[in-house]
Specification:
Length: about 140
């Protein structure tokens, strides 16, 4: 009975692991595939200004440096967004590798539970039967 319960638990964990991997893969591929549509969105980063409530607390040199840094990063961010759809195939391979490692670990967990149950059952029978060993009263 305990064997069946432990393996049912492991199969349920593998099913949940598979569902989670599938869902995260679908969301990630959708996100990466649609990232190319966002190219050009980073060009407005150089026109960003500090909020009015924060401006008195930040020195003007720091605000100007941050604005220039954001303006310099805009072309890099745009190029990364344009290259993102090409990563979808690699994302599929990574998902399969991570899923298989997790599945193997869960099956090993099941084997460990199986062995633990077997050891506990053997230990429970070991001291309470006629096959426990020779008795001193017989001699």
């Amino acid at each position: 009975m305990f064997y069946a319960l432990s393996w049912f638990f492991v199969v349920a964990l593998v099913a949940l692991w598979s569902l989670a991997a599938w869902a995260l893969h679908a969301v990630a591929v959708w996100t990466v595939s649609n990232a190319g549509a966002l190219s050009g969105a980073a060009s407005g980063a150089s026109t960003m200004a500090l909020p009015d409530w924060l401006a008195p607390w930040v020195p003007p040199e720091v605000a100007q440096w941050a604005s220039q840094a954001m303006g310099g990063l805009a072309p890099f961010i745009d190029s990364m967004l344009q290259a993102a759809p090409a990563l979808a195939g690699g994302l599929t391979v990574a998902t399969w590798v991570i899923w298989s490692i997790g599945s193997v670990l869960l099956v090993l967990l099941g084997a460990g539970l199986h062995l633990l149950i077997a050891l506990l059952r053997r230990r429970g029978r070991g001291g309470s039967g006629p096959s426990a060993g020779p008795s001193l009263a017989a001699g």
